[in-house]
Protein backbone atom coordinates (compact mmCIF):
# COMPACT_ATOMS: atom_id res chain seq x y z
CA UNK A 1 0.00 0.00 0.00
CA UNK A 2 1.51 3.32 -1.08
CA UNK A 3 -0.72 5.71 0.85
CA UNK A 4 1.45 8.14 2.84
CA UNK A 5 1.07 8.75 6.55
CA UNK A 6 0.12 12.35 5.77
CA UNK A 7 -2.85 11.23 3.65
CA UNK A 8 -4.45 9.12 6.39
CA UNK A 9 -7.60 10.56 7.97
CA UNK A 10 -6.89 12.23 11.30
CA UNK A 11 -8.75 9.62 13.34
CA UNK A 12 -6.82 6.73 11.80
CA UNK A 13 -3.51 8.57 12.16
CA UNK A 14 -4.23 9.26 15.83
CA UNK A 15 -4.96 5.57 16.33
CA UNK A 16 -1.67 4.49 14.76
CA UNK A 17 0.32 7.01 16.79
CA UNK A 18 -1.31 6.07 20.07
CA UNK A 19 -0.82 2.40 19.29
CA UNK A 20 2.85 3.00 18.65
CA UNK A 21 2.63 1.52 15.15
CA UNK A 22 4.16 4.58 13.47
CA UNK A 23 6.67 6.97 15.13
CA UNK A 24 4.97 10.37 15.31
CA UNK A 25 7.67 12.34 13.52
CA UNK A 26 8.24 10.06 10.54
CA UNK A 27 7.58 12.00 7.38
CA UNK A 28 7.31 15.34 9.25
CA UNK A 29 10.95 16.50 9.13
CA UNK A 30 11.88 15.95 12.77
CA UNK A 31 13.99 12.90 13.74
CA UNK A 32 11.71 10.29 15.25
CA UNK A 33 14.59 8.05 16.30
CA UNK A 34 18.34 7.96 16.75
CA UNK A 35 20.82 5.32 15.61
CA UNK A 36 24.33 4.88 16.94
CA UNK A 37 26.52 3.49 14.13
CA UNK A 38 30.10 2.26 14.39
CA UNK A 39 32.48 2.79 11.47
CA UNK A 40 36.00 1.73 10.50
CA UNK A 41 38.73 3.51 8.53
CA UNK A 42 38.23 1.88 5.11
CA UNK A 43 38.49 4.52 2.39
CA UNK A 44 36.66 5.25 0.17
CA UNK A 45 33.75 3.60 2.00
CA UNK A 46 34.46 4.96 5.45
CA UNK A 47 37.10 7.55 6.31
CA UNK A 48 37.77 10.78 8.20
CA UNK A 49 36.87 13.84 6.14
CA UNK A 50 38.78 17.08 5.90
CA UNK A 51 36.34 18.60 8.41
CA UNK A 52 37.22 15.94 10.99
CA UNK A 53 33.90 14.14 10.57
CA UNK A 54 33.21 10.65 9.13
CA UNK A 55 32.98 10.65 5.34
CA UNK A 56 32.91 8.21 2.41
CA UNK A 57 30.42 6.09 0.49
CA UNK A 58 28.88 4.23 3.44
CA UNK A 59 28.76 7.36 5.59
CA UNK A 60 26.95 9.31 2.86
CA UNK A 61 24.49 6.46 2.35
CA UNK A 62 23.59 6.23 6.03
CA UNK A 63 23.40 10.02 6.47
CA UNK A 64 20.98 10.24 3.52
CA UNK A 65 18.98 7.32 4.93
CA UNK A 66 18.80 9.13 8.26
CA UNK A 67 17.65 12.34 6.58
CA UNK A 68 14.86 10.57 4.74
CA UNK A 69 13.61 8.38 7.61
CA UNK A 70 14.09 10.84 9.43
CA UNK A 71 16.46 9.54 12.12
CA UNK A 72 19.40 11.20 13.89
CA UNK A 73 22.69 9.38 13.19
CA UNK A 74 25.58 9.18 15.66
CA UNK A 75 29.00 7.77 14.68
CA UNK A 76 31.69 5.96 16.65
CA UNK A 77 35.08 4.91 15.25
CA UNK A 78 36.49 1.42 15.91
CA UNK A 79 38.56 -1.22 14.07
CA UNK A 80 36.32 -3.78 12.34
CA UNK A 81 36.81 -6.63 14.89
CA UNK A 82 36.02 -4.19 17.72
CA UNK A 83 33.11 -2.73 15.75
CA UNK A 84 31.46 -6.13 15.42
CA UNK A 85 32.02 -6.82 19.12
CA UNK A 86 30.32 -3.53 20.01
CA UNK A 87 27.31 -4.60 17.94
CA UNK A 88 27.28 -8.04 19.53
CA UNK A 89 27.39 -6.57 23.04
CA UNK A 90 24.72 -3.99 22.30
CA UNK A 91 26.99 -1.01 22.94
CA UNK A 92 26.09 0.47 19.54
CA UNK A 93 22.99 0.04 17.42
CA UNK A 94 24.56 -0.96 14.12
CA UNK A 95 27.61 -1.30 11.89
CA UNK A 96 27.61 -0.45 8.19
CA UNK A 97 29.30 -2.13 5.21
CA UNK A 98 29.70 -5.70 6.45
CA UNK A 99 29.26 -9.07 4.76
CA UNK A 100 26.43 -11.39 5.75
CA UNK A 101 27.52 -14.50 7.67
CA UNK A 102 25.78 -17.08 9.84
CA UNK A 103 28.01 -16.11 12.77
CA UNK A 104 26.83 -12.50 12.63
CA UNK A 105 23.20 -13.45 12.13
CA UNK A 106 23.37 -15.03 15.58
CA UNK A 107 23.61 -11.61 17.25
CA UNK A 108 22.21 -9.15 14.73
CA UNK A 109 19.62 -8.38 12.09
CA UNK A 110 20.85 -7.60 8.58
CA UNK A 111 19.35 -4.87 6.45
CA UNK A 112 18.65 -5.23 2.76
CA UNK A 113 21.92 -5.00 0.78
CA UNK A 114 23.29 -1.48 0.99
CA UNK A 115 25.67 -1.75 -1.96
CA UNK A 116 27.63 -4.22 -4.06
CA UNK A 117 31.38 -4.64 -4.32
CA UNK A 118 34.10 -7.09 -5.23
CA UNK A 119 37.29 -8.47 -3.78
CA UNK A 120 40.40 -8.64 -5.96
CA UNK A 121 44.05 -9.57 -5.80
CA UNK A 122 46.58 -6.73 -5.93
CA UNK A 123 50.04 -7.41 -7.39
CA UNK A 124 53.03 -5.32 -8.43
CA UNK A 125 52.77 -3.63 -11.82
CA UNK A 126 53.53 -6.12 -14.58
CA UNK A 127 53.28 -9.16 -12.31
CA UNK A 128 49.84 -10.30 -13.47
CA UNK A 129 51.30 -11.77 -16.65
CA UNK A 130 53.87 -13.75 -14.64
CA UNK A 131 51.23 -15.21 -12.33
CA UNK A 132 48.61 -16.35 -14.84
CA UNK A 133 46.18 -17.81 -12.30
CA UNK A 134 42.49 -18.03 -13.13
CA UNK A 135 41.42 -18.93 -9.61
CA UNK A 136 42.65 -19.22 -6.05
CA UNK A 137 42.65 -22.98 -6.54
CA UNK A 138 45.29 -22.60 -9.26
CA UNK A 139 47.23 -20.17 -7.06
CA UNK A 140 47.28 -22.71 -4.22
CA UNK A 141 49.11 -25.19 -6.46
CA UNK A 142 52.10 -22.84 -6.83
CA UNK A 143 54.54 -20.94 -4.64
CA UNK A 144 52.68 -17.64 -4.67
CA UNK A 145 53.00 -15.68 -1.40
CA UNK A 146 49.52 -14.37 -0.66
CA UNK A 147 48.99 -11.60 1.89
CA UNK A 148 45.88 -12.19 3.99
CA UNK A 149 44.44 -10.34 6.98
CA UNK A 150 43.65 -13.09 9.54
CA UNK A 151 39.92 -13.54 10.09
CA UNK A 152 38.92 -11.88 6.81
CA UNK A 153 36.35 -13.54 4.54
CA UNK A 154 37.32 -12.96 0.94
CA UNK A 155 35.25 -15.58 -0.88
CA UNK A 156 33.72 -19.02 -0.49
CA UNK A 157 36.58 -20.49 -2.52
CA UNK A 158 39.05 -18.89 -0.14
CA UNK A 159 37.14 -20.30 2.85
CA UNK A 160 37.10 -23.80 1.37
CA UNK A 161 40.80 -23.76 0.48
CA UNK A 162 41.74 -22.41 3.89
CA UNK A 163 39.65 -25.02 5.68
CA UNK A 164 41.18 -27.84 3.65
CA UNK A 165 44.72 -26.57 4.22
CA UNK A 166 45.36 -26.12 0.50
CA UNK A 167 46.50 -22.52 1.02
CA UNK A 168 48.60 -23.20 4.10
CA UNK A 169 51.91 -22.83 2.25
CA UNK A 170 50.77 -19.70 0.42
CA UNK A 171 49.25 -17.51 3.09
CA UNK A 172 51.38 -14.78 4.67
CA UNK A 173 49.52 -13.03 7.52
CA UNK A 174 49.38 -9.23 7.23
CA UNK A 175 48.11 -6.81 9.84
CA UNK A 176 45.99 -4.71 7.48
CA UNK A 177 45.85 -3.32 3.96
CA UNK A 178 48.57 -0.75 4.62
CA UNK A 179 51.05 -3.35 5.82
CA UNK A 180 50.10 -5.61 2.88
CA UNK A 181 50.93 -2.80 0.44
CA UNK A 182 54.25 -2.17 2.18
CA UNK A 183 55.15 -5.87 2.13
CA UNK A 184 54.24 -6.06 -1.56
CA UNK A 185 56.56 -3.17 -2.38
CA UNK A 186 59.38 -4.84 -0.39
CA UNK A 187 58.86 -8.15 -2.23
CA UNK A 188 57.88 -9.95 0.96
CA UNK A 189 54.62 -11.08 -0.65
CA UNK A 190 53.61 -11.53 -4.30
CA UNK A 191 50.11 -10.17 -3.89
CA UNK A 192 47.27 -9.66 -1.43
CA UNK A 193 43.48 -9.85 -1.32
CA UNK A 194 41.43 -6.73 -0.67
CA UNK A 195 38.31 -4.85 -1.70
CA UNK A 196 38.64 -3.28 -5.16
CA UNK A 197 37.76 0.31 -4.25
CA UNK A 198 39.58 0.12 -0.91
CA UNK A 199 42.82 -1.14 -2.46
CA UNK A 200 42.86 1.42 -5.27
CA UNK A 201 42.07 4.30 -2.91
CA UNK A 202 44.89 3.18 -0.63
CA UNK A 203 47.33 2.97 -3.53
CA UNK A 204 46.50 6.55 -4.52
CA UNK A 205 46.80 7.72 -0.92
CA UNK A 206 50.25 6.10 -0.61
CA UNK A 207 51.44 7.37 -3.98
CA UNK A 208 51.65 3.82 -5.37
CA UNK A 209 48.90 3.90 -7.99
CA UNK A 210 51.47 3.44 -10.79
CA UNK A 211 53.28 0.64 -8.97
CA UNK A 212 50.46 -1.87 -8.53
CA UNK A 213 47.71 -3.45 -10.61
CA UNK A 214 44.60 -5.56 -10.19
CA UNK A 215 45.14 -9.20 -11.14
CA UNK A 216 42.46 -10.37 -13.65
CA UNK A 217 41.72 -13.52 -11.61
CA UNK A 218 38.16 -13.56 -10.29
CA UNK A 219 38.01 -13.59 -6.50
CA UNK A 220 34.55 -12.57 -5.38
CA UNK A 221 31.57 -10.30 -5.92
CA UNK A 222 29.65 -9.55 -2.78
CA UNK A 223 26.99 -7.44 -1.13
CA UNK A 224 27.47 -5.21 1.91
CA UNK A 225 24.84 -4.73 4.60
CA UNK A 226 24.05 -2.80 7.73
CA UNK A 227 23.96 -5.08 10.79
CA UNK A 228 21.64 -4.05 13.64
CA UNK A 229 22.36 -5.23 17.17
CA UNK A 230 19.76 -7.40 18.89
CA UNK A 231 21.26 -6.68 22.32
CA UNK A 232 20.87 -2.93 21.78
CA UNK A 233 17.13 -3.38 21.43
CA UNK A 234 16.74 -1.50 18.14
CA UNK A 235 13.02 -1.08 17.41
CA UNK A 236 12.07 -3.50 14.58
CA UNK A 237 9.90 -0.72 13.13
CA UNK A 238 13.03 1.42 12.73
CA UNK A 239 14.80 -1.39 10.83
CA UNK A 240 11.72 -1.82 8.62
CA UNK A 241 11.73 1.91 7.90
CA UNK A 242 15.49 1.81 7.20
CA UNK A 243 14.96 -0.96 4.63
CA UNK A 244 12.02 0.81 2.98
CA UNK A 245 14.00 4.05 2.57
CA UNK A 246 17.03 2.07 1.35
CA UNK A 247 14.95 0.45 -1.40
CA UNK A 248 13.67 3.88 -2.37
CA UNK A 249 17.22 5.18 -2.67
CA UNK A 250 18.11 2.25 -4.90
CA UNK A 251 15.05 2.86 -7.09
CA UNK A 252 15.64 6.60 -7.55
CA UNK A 253 19.35 6.20 -8.36
CA UNK A 254 20.70 7.83 -5.19
CA UNK A 255 22.97 4.91 -4.31
CA UNK A 256 24.37 4.72 -7.84
CA UNK A 257 25.02 8.47 -7.80
CA UNK A 258 26.91 8.27 -4.51
CA UNK A 259 29.00 5.35 -5.75
CA UNK A 260 29.80 7.15 -8.99
CA UNK A 261 31.05 10.16 -7.05
CA UNK A 262 33.91 7.93 -5.89
CA UNK A 263 34.85 6.53 -9.30
CA UNK A 264 33.92 3.36 -11.17
How much of the polypeptide forms β-strand, as a percent range? 15-25%
The helix/strand class is: alpha/beta
| SSE arrangement, N to C | HEEEHEHEHEEHEHEHEHEEHH
Overall outline: globular
Flag low-confidence runs.
Answer: 1-27
Query: How widely separated are the two ends?
Result: 36 Å
The major pleated sheet works out as: 10 strands, mixed
**Cα gyration radius (Å):** 21 Å
How many H/I helical runs? Answer: 10
Question: How would you portray this structure in words?
Answer:
The protein has ten helices and twelve strands. The protein is α/β, with parallel strands linked by helices. Strands 1, 4, 5, 6, 7, 8, 9, 10, 11 and 12 form a ten-stranded mixed sheet that branches. The protein has a two-stranded antiparallel sheet with strand order 2-3.
Topology:
Layout: H1 10-19, E1 34-39, E2 47-48, E3 54-55, H2 57-68, E4 72-77, H3 80-88, E5 94-98, H4 102-105, E6 108-110, E7 115-124, H5 136-140, E8 146-148, H6 156-164, E9 171-173, H7 177-185, E10 191-195, H8 196-205, E11 212-214, E12 220-229, H9 236-251, H10 254-260
Parallel strand pairs: 1-4, 1-5, 8-9, 8-10
Antiparallel strand pairs: 2-3, 5-12, 6-12, 7-10, 7-11, 7-12
Amino acid sequence: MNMSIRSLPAAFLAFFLLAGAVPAAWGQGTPACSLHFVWTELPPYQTLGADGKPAGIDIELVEELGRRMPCAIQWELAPRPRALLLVQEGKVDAVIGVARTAEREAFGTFSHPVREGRNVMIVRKGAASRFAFKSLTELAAGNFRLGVVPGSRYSQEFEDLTRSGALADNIVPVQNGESAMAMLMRDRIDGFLDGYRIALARAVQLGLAEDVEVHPMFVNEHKAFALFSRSAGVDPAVITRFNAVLLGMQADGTITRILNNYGS
